[in-house]
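Annex B, item 7. Sequence and structure tokens for protein A, then protein B.
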Amino acid sequence: MHEDRPHKHSHEHGEGHVHSHQHVHSHAHAHPHRHDDHTAGLTYSESGVDVAAGNEAVRLLKERLKSTKNPLVLEGIGGFGGIMRMPPIKDAVLVAGADGAGTKTMIAREMGVWHTVGIDAVAMNVNDVSACGAVPFFFLDYLVVAKLIPERVAAIVSGVDEGCLRAECVLLGGETGEHPGHFSHPDDFDLAGFAVGLAARHELWGPGKVQAGDVVLGLASTGVHSNGFSLVRKLLAERGIGLDDRFPGSESREGGAQSIGDVLLTPTAVYSPVLHDLGHACDVHAAAHVTGGGFPDNVSRALPDGLAAELDLSAWQPPPVFAWLREAGVADDDMLATFNCGVGMAVVLPAGELPVALDTISRGGHTAWQIGEVVTRGDGAAVRYRGSLW
């Protein structure tokens, strides 16, 4: 829980127990001349863990967090565990996921931008849960920092809170660990989380519902999202490209000139609310959150054996960041097998549902295209292409 953050600091030994203070006392038999000296013990703060800073971070979080408030929450901030009532769903099932913001956190650290990667951590989880046909119910975050700076921790977790608001789920708890000596840079941090969703069992989506002749819709991504950043960072280093360099052509686009770092830090789209609406409006068969592994590794997970998705790469226009990555040196095959290339979520449904689906997605504030069809697989790959993105 967020209030427990100063009392549950993880440390380099990884114990799960609460140790707010650790003193190493001298033993009389070893040092008889110091048998009554208890002032020389090693303190927790001397090991690099600042409990007072943790308390200040919690105070700031209490002032800022909004998604923790929900009529179903019985005990959120303050206890050992978050407690929520279950809504009345017949034959209810839980759908859980775990993910993080990846090495996008390193871009955030270099840019000094702390408030957006929390949105990414939430989005990566709730989009997975929603791709199963479930509605995200609550989220838990785990933040580990090299050095606990209260305002910075509050900014990062406020981003998590914003992600939960976008996903319409509850931030039910979390943990912040201060790990001195763990990271190579004093401002480094890592951020992960866990989402739990709810669904009636008969409402779940999956490969078993997909049929030949179904269409594949693609929901537009906001950019790179939260995958492939190890490749992005290597590309920046090898090409000598700075995060503060101007992103080519951005001055002529809406919003004005942006740096390369700004473009890369664009938060991951949260699709959960629109997918919920889509599930009520249409007979959705399956969905695929397009993350690491791109189209081959993710769209294939929404298909049964014997069927394939034939994607028309000319059906959509990817955001400029993908053409920039390609021009900077990423091979075409790696583009499709690493990045979302402009489609963050693929949805499979009957062809007759297409008009209603596109209208529902548009009213939900997202852009979508028909990007393919489900066909008999034969001896070919589960995901195949025609046309070109470029």
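Protein B:
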Amino acid sequence: MKAAAGHAERRRTPYNTPMRIFLYGISALSWWLSAPATPGEGNRVGQNALRNCKPNDAAIQYLARCCPQIPRPYHVAVSARMKRCPDGVAPHRSQFKLTGKPFCRVASGIYAPCPELCFVQVANSLDLHELVKVGNALCGTFFIDPKARNGLGKRRPLTSVRRIGAFVGRNPGILGAKPARRALDLMVDGAASPPEVFLAMALGLPYRLGGYQLPGIAANRRVKPSSKARAIAHRNTLVPDILCESSRLDIEYDSNTEHASATQLTRDAQKRLALEADGYKVITVTARQIGSREEMRKVAEQSRRRMGTRLRPQSAAFRQQQGVLFRTGWSLSRYHRREWLKGAPESVAAALPCSTPADSRTAPECSPLSGARAFSGLESTTLEPILPEIEEIASPGITPRGKTPKM
């Protein structure tokens, strides 16, 4: 009897737990953009964990309490077509056979596609500029944290351009693979804030997409200074914000918040002098300049002069695509609830309809993974004040209630 009981207990896996929710697409992106860290390998599960997964009203209430940052409708993956879909839910049916363990347990009973799969899922519903922006954010070193002074926290990158490319290579037929491949060629690793994401796009995207096509763009890549530069900077390595190594060009972003402190101004001046001592051309860009096409053109012209070439946008679509690029901007606020961005993540479970009072009693208490807080409290990176653009809007590619699309 004890052996049988032990065997039954061992079989209580993600495949048969009473309440399981698998985030999908835009909702998973909302989670990852605000996640301080990636759960450890022990929290990875295979596609079989999705078996018999059909979230009910109680599960959605639980999700709302656990993840107050995710706006409605909630995009979730399901194993089969649902006859009745809870209000405020957009289900997506999974049929493609994924390799490996592509899902992560991010809280008790809540799973998200790994960052690589999440990127491919949203690739089918976002336009190219927006896709490159969120891809750069997933590959960046920041996360959205409304409790931080600048609205950002610091973390290790969730993924990289190379890892996303490898995932698509292992799953070539998955929905979203084609637009994902196109975006990967335009992305960079290591951006430390949303403005840096946009700065890399504005300077590095090809003319046909509205960028200034500066070659060899890299974000926050460490360089080893000379002994003279080390003496000036009082550090052993320097990290230019946007680097064109072949031209020894550094483009620095100075925000209106963190860079205003006396300590940070001193460090920036030391960094700039050290780079110039090693022969780098340093161009400083402010938030006001990033938001202006005219100012960004001046920055691009200075950069091109350093490279010994001229700025010649010859694409007929340049002006129109640049308008799209600047309307895309750097804000990521559309992927989170406005109340949460204001720093008041109250439970939103009460706003969701429940079929019976008993459903709310069956929902367990929220229990995020302890490892998810590994990077909380680290020094914030720079960010302009967050201006929420959309409050609980339907994200691109929303599926009408009751219809379950194929993944």
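Comment on protein B: Confidence is low (pLDDT under 50) at residues 7-16, 344-407.
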